[in-house]
Amino acid sequence: MDDETYLLCCTPPEAHLTSADDLARLLDFLAQNGFFLYAEAEDRPVFLATLHYARPEVLAGDTEEQQAKRELAAPYIQQITRPGITDQVRQEVLAFTSSETATLKVKAEGTAYAGALQHFAFSLSIMPEDHYLTLQYSTTFFARKTAAEESVRAYEQWLAVCTACYLFSQAIYAYEWNSNGSIPTTDEEDLEQRQPSMLYEVNFFGPEMVANLGGLAYVQQTPAQIVRPLENGGVMVLPEISWYPGSGSQTYSWAKSAKHLHVAKPDFIQDDDDNEE
Questions:
Q1: End-to-end CA gap in the chain
Q2: What whole-number distance in Å separates Cα of residue 152 and Cα of residue 135?
Q3: Most confident of 126-130, 151-155, 248-252
Q4: Distance CA 148, CA 40 (A)
Q5: Stretch 144-154: mean pLDDT, rounded?
């Protein structure tokens, strides 16, 4: 994925990330929202099945190589067009929830049933020993959409996926981070103290962090572009999305939001001239 953007869900040691029932509900939610879920080991046949539709000439012909490619792609040619979960993923989930494997990685591709998220791809990784659940994706998918309404619709669908993963993970804190190094990750001490030191473009503050930031009512007053309470007592805060319709408003900004929450903003975000509260 071109920009290596992640949602990092930082989980407490007691989080039940290997719960078979909870994980099944999460994966079913993704499939019900139009995603085709497959395992990393299935990358090659899924890619070839995609070529069957995008560039059929690659698989056409009578050479041994082309015949082998067609045989490898065949089981997936119909599967990739509709939402669902492959048998390989189900087997890996069983091994993971039975503690036979330490991590789980599932890849997802938006089908036509995903609406505005058709062709959107992401990877879900669950690492209980490291106390992390991560989503890896590309935010350029949203910025490239030419119609503002479609961008909003796609991004709202994606936020619903992020919220479901955050709630499943029981995260202390979840935030969007890019591996380009422009913003540092949150360190372990901040997580232990339930006190964020940096405001990211996407933030899911857990209930304990919300309390340390001033309480639910105070956090919901953050002058951010998107502020939403969550069912577990947490709050989702997106201070300012440059490509999102309505960005650039004088009523909210990344700088204003950071000052309200008493946390740092990234170095590339300028101070507002009128950000006195």
A1: 40
A2: 20
A3: 126-130
A4: 33
A5: 82
